[in-house]
Design a protein that fits this description.
It is built from three helices and four strands; from the N terminus they run E-E-H-H-H-E-E. By secondary structure, the chain is α+β, with helices and mostly antiparallel strands. It has one domain. The strands form two sheets. A two-stranded antiparallel sheet has the order 1-2. Strand 3 and strand 4 form a beta hairpin. The protein starts with a strand and ends with a strand. 10% of the residues are buried.
Length: 79
């Protein structure tokens, strides 16, 4: 498995167990509110439709990456 850039420790509210979620490609920079950011958000919006289970989970790597890119729909916003 490739190394990831970010990680977040999440706790399961039912069992209390901790899990580390790793996301983001190491070596790439995140540039919200740019043309590159818009392209990422449009591409990941398609993934949200293809993988509804990940789209509903706020701690999935897909959702955490979209949050870093500041995606709103298929556009990357400034703030």
């Amino acid at each position: 498995m490739a190394e990831k850039k970010f990680k977040k420790v999440v706790r399961n509210p039912k069992t209390g167990r901790k899990k580390t979620v790793k996301y983001g490609a190491k070596g790439y920079s995140i540039a919200p509110s740019t043309k590159r950011g818009d392209s990422y958000c449009a591409r990941s919006a398609g993934q949200m439709k293809k993988f509804p289970k990940s789209a509903k989970n706020p701690n999935s790597p897909l959702r955490l990456s979209r949050k870093k890119w500041k995606c709103s729909g298929s556009k990357s916003r400034r703030k």
